[in-house]
Amino acid sequence: MRIFALSDIHLDYEENRHWLADLSDTTYQADMLILAGDISDNLELVEWCFVTLKRKFLKVFFVPGNHELWVIRNKGMNSLEKFDALVQLARSNSISIDAYHHGGLSIVPFFGWYDYSFGFPNEELLQSWVDFNACRWPEGMNASGITNYFLQFNREATAVSNDVVISFSHFLPRIDVMPAQIPQRFRYIYPVLGSSLLDKQIRKIRSNRHIHLYGHSHVNRKVTIDNIEYMNNAFGYPSEGSITRKQLICIYSV
């Protein structure tokens, strides 16, 4: 059994839908896939993705990204209600959003958001970041409150102990997983990449080997920091071939 990783497949793009549909229906029947968010804000595309991947893999794991919580298409619904709808959609299609244990291996989802622990947004970010207009939160709920709302679902995950643990989130748990060579002009988006509180939760896990898969940044990377192996395998937008692999990667095998 192999464990594959993928995030940010953005199925609003036809090229990405074709790639997903063309994945073999036979090669991965004994394997598992971790899908770390950003399928689409369109619930019909999300369900199509779930149905398609469930047919190809033995088991599929998922956490929502920021795009799934956009409510532009969902009038009358706020982003927390959209999250609840996504949870129900995943469960009704047998997509796992809960911790899974198989002998000495555990696979553990972590929910999250960003709380500006990586920096405060400047005017350029406030004007350009789509979440600020596409998401809708209960009145008075700020970035810190949003993050803490999602982190509360991770309490049981932090108690996991096993020989090998693969945890995963859409959002970055620490900003130093970003490569040092990222040009300064692109770093204005760092405040909306994740939360250091997420890493504090992840580090409560006890294991001999800990792999953490994340998405969101669209910058593929593998780096070990303080004994945790951080990985990102974002499929990304069609134009991002230079920073994304455009393929599944196997991150562990049993």
UniProtKB/TrEMBL annotation:
<dbReference type="InterPro" id="IPR029052">
    <property type="entry name" value="Metallo-depent_PP-like"/>
</dbReference>
<dbReference type="InterPro" id="IPR004843">
    <property type="entry name" value="Calcineurin-like_PHP"/>
</dbReference>
<dbReference type="InterPro" id="IPR052963">
    <property type="entry name" value="Pantetheine_PDE"/>
</dbReference>
<feature type="domain" description="Calcineurin-like phosphoesterase">
    <location>
        <begin position="1"/>
        <end position="219"/>
    </location>
</feature>
<protein>
    <submittedName>
        <fullName>Putative phosphohydrolase</fullName>
    </submittedName>
</protein>
<dbReference type="GO" id="GO:0016787">
    <property type="term" value="F:hydrolase activity"/>
</dbReference>
<dbReference type="Pfam" id="PF00149">
    <property type="entry name" value="Metallophos"/>
</dbReference>
<keyword id="KW-0378">Hydrolase</keyword>
